[in-house]
Amino acid sequence: MKILKANPEIPSMTMEEAERFLESKLNLQLATIDSKGDPNIQPVWFYYDKNKEKLFIMTGKNTKKSQNVRESPIIYFCIEDGNSPYKGVKGKGIVTIYDNLQTVVSLSNKMIIKYLGTLDNPMSKAISERSKSGEGIIIEITPKFFSTWDFDKMSIS
């Protein structure tokens, strides 16, 4: 994976640091373009598979974001910690949609555990049941690059 500096004056992350950062419970901001050519940004839960270097999100088959990526599979994304010292990872990617029930349930459960810590509370069960209903899809993002920043690496005199 290619790592770019988001800003020449701000230190960036290494690939290992970016991978650790992508394990956080922050939301991914998914930017798509709709059929009118207008931008659409949605905060979503995500799962990063470092072995495959891919990001995954779950959504419904008929959501605006799923309609948009079907029409234009090129997206932008951003995951940022808005607390000082600021850091983040953004990039451009190509999407693939999966509606295979086994894939949807498996990856949805990984996201539920990441964000809620368990599959055994009412919210977790509701999300898991929805993924088992066949109404959900997984959007796989294959990043072209990661553009990173890490203000924690700046020396303050």
Spatial shape: globular
The value of Rg in angstroms is 16 Å
Task: Write down the secondary-structure element order.
Answer: EHEEEEHEEHHEE
Spatial separation of the terminal alpha carbons: 33 Å
| CATH architecture assignment name | Roll
Largest sheet: 9 strands, mixed
Backbone structural class:
alpha+beta
Beta fraction of the residues?
A: 35-45%
At the fourth CATH level, what is the homologous superfamily?
Electron Transport, Fmn-binding Protein, Chain A
Protein model, in words:
The chain has 157 residues and is of the alpha+beta class. It has a single domain, classed as Roll (Pnp Oxidase, Chain A). 27% of the residues lie in helices and 37% in strands. It has four helices and nine strands. The protein has helices spanning 15-21, 64-71, 101-116, 122-132; strands at 3-5, 28-33, 39-44, 47-49, 54-60, 74-81, 87-98, 136-143, 146-150. Strands 1, 2, 3, 4, 5, 6, 7, 8 and 9 form a nine-stranded mixed sheet that branches. Helix 3 (101-116) runs antiparallel to helix 4. It is globular.
In short:
The protein is of the alpha+beta class and about 160 residues long. The chain contains four helices and nine strands, in the order βαββββαββααββ.
What is the topology?
Layout: E1 3-5, H1 15-21, E2 28-33, E3 39-44, E4 47-49, E5 54-60, H2 64-71, E6 74-81, E7 87-98, H3 101-116, H4 122-132, E8 136-143, E9 146-150
Parallel strand pairs: 1-9
Antiparallel strand pairs: 2-3, 2-6, 4-5, 5-8, 6-7, 7-8, 7-9
Helix pairs in contact: 3-4
